[in-house]
Amino acid sequence: MAFIIIGLSILLLVILIVWVKVEPFIAFLIASLLAGLFLGIPLENIAGAVQKGIGDLLGSLVIVITLGAMLGKIVADSGAAQKIAAFLMKAFGKKQLHWAIALTSFVVGIPLFFNVGFVLLVPLVFTVTYQFRIPAMTVGIPMLAALSVTHGLLPPHPAPVALVAQFDANMGLTLIYGLVLAVPMIIIAGPLLGKAPFLKKMEVKPLEIFMGSPKEDTALPGLANSLISSLLPVFLLISLSLLSLKFDPEHPGFAFLQFIGNPSVVMLVSLIWATFSLGVTKGKSIKSIMDGYTLAVKDIALILLIIAGAGAFKEVLVESGISEEIGTMLQSWEMNPLLLGWIIAAIIRISVGSATVAALTAAGIVAPLMAAGTVNPNLMVLSIGAGSLILSHVNDGGFWLVKEYFNLSIQQTLQSWTLLETVVAVLGLLGVLALDFIL
Question: What membrane topology does the UniProt entry give (predicted)?
């Protein structure tokens, strides 16, 4: 019965958003409350679950997304993104630019959470799209593929790190195996998929709020300034993460590094730097810069609300215990444990929406299977990580992040982002099974 309720809740979401044209945030609230009611959550706990879901998701995203939007705005307005795009075009050529975006996103995605990397790189994608008249999804898909794969498979991202600890796997080996899988996964689901005719023909007009007006070459900031100001968060997070490895957790310096290495703090420091390097030192007044930041925040307000609504819906499903029910049912299946772990993570992902929740829940379910010692724990981490990425749809905050930033319709998001995530998940499973055969 619970599965029917989830299906009807998702159907209600689609009907409200696509047919009735209700704002997604309101539709999420309605679906969340009704799902909580019919899934048997005590009446006094339903509103609390909705509020917790909104708070938990926005609490980790609102600072990063807001500051990232501001950073993207000044990077675009100053001409820094245009300068970087011109450099990439010259270095790789127009026909190979999608490979440059994929490579950049892969490097950025290793140390950065998906949302952080997304808000950092999306202005560059939009600049390339508008300036060189390249189809938006041709360069958007490689970026999304690289960020998604690194988020789901590679430490130090939250889910892979947690799975390594739970399965007593080796962090180094998991990272090595993950990199072996990640490269072909990104190539196929990124640049190659992005060249698909139906994606190239997809009429997409990304949000122009993150695009500055084209400037003459003489008015652009220098390449070094553009790269440093745009990618300072990446440099800081990588260097601080490496530096923290040299400190014992009990050392006073470790706590300080954890503080300044927090994505929110890094984004604030980077924004302050960019405000001066790309704004004040170029003759702009603080007031004009802040006016631009205000416009950027206004434009993403709806995005934040939509992501919040997805968080509410996810928390109601988690609170109901449906993810554990799904996993318990599947645990009795007799098959390759790696395939079983992938399937459990995939079904929970489709039902609940959160890749992290899907991965961690699946890990708890398959943990007893690992006790026999017949399964490579490093590969199980990757198998579950791949399964947790499949079929992102309307109950996933990432779905709405991509939809709203790229200004896609529901159908276009399903045809691009959802397809990409499914391709990544299937490729990940095939790669894990191939490694298992070889090892």
Answer: Multi-pass membrane protein
Return the closest-CA partner of residue 316 out of 37, 84, 123: 37
CB 415 within 8 A of CB 198: yes
Alpha-helical regions (H) of 15-96? 24-38, 43-78, 80-92
**Angstrom distance (rounded) from CA 367 to CA 357:** 15
* Residue ranges in the chain whose pLDDT is less than 50: none
Name the DSSP class of 343: H
Residue 390 structural domain? 2-438
Of the candidates 264, 279, 293, 269, the one whose C-alpha atom is nearest the C-alpha of residue 226 is 279
How far is Cα 182 from Cα 390, in angstroms, rounded to an integer?
15
Under 8 Å between Cβ of 143 and 129: no
> Do the Cβ atoms of 340 and 333 come closer than 8 Å?
yes
DSSP 146-160: HHHHHHHHSTTSHHH
Q: Are 121 and 105 in contact (CB under 8 A)?
A: yes
Instruction: Please state, in angstroms and rounded to a whole number, the distance separating the CA atoms of residues 265 and 286.
Output: 21
Fill in the DSSP letter of residue 129. Answer: H
Evaluate whether 314 touches 392 at the Cβ level (below 8 Å): no
Residues 65 and 119 sit within 8 Å (Cβ to Cβ): yes
The pLDDT of residue 214: 65
* Total structural domains within the chain: 1
Q: Roughly what angle, to the nearest 10 degrees, separates helices 322-330 and 337-352?
A: 160
Q: What is the pLDDT of residue 210?
A: 61
pTM of the model: 0.72
DSSP string, 218-236: GGSPPHHHHHHHHHHHHHH
Question: Position of tokens 């996964």?
Answer: 185
| Nearest residue to 123 (alpha-carbon basis) of 36, 231, 198 | 231
pLDDT digits (tens, 9 = 90+) for 189-212: 999 999 999 998 887 777 666 655
Distances in whole angstroms, Cα of residue 179 to Cα of each of 115, 155, 242: 20, 10, 18
**Is the distance from CB of 359 to CB of 163 less than 8 angstroms?**
yes
